[in-house]
Sequence to fold (76 residues):
Amino acid sequence: MGKYVTVSAKIPEDLRRRARELNINISRLIRVAIEREVKLREEELLRKMAKEASQVLRKIPQAELVKAIRETREQR
Fold:
């Protein structure tokens, strides 16, 4: 990881106290939760893009797709 930024969240004082009593690293927990949510949203976006690409590719005749793929392979 490169640079870091500070984010903050307001939580009830009682919740903070209870988390500390349970030795919960709040910073780590927030970081992990954000990483998990970002990954989930990125995967969701990729699924959406793949679905859209699939719909576009269905409109192209299969023979044309095969020809384009073979031509691309030959260029390597």
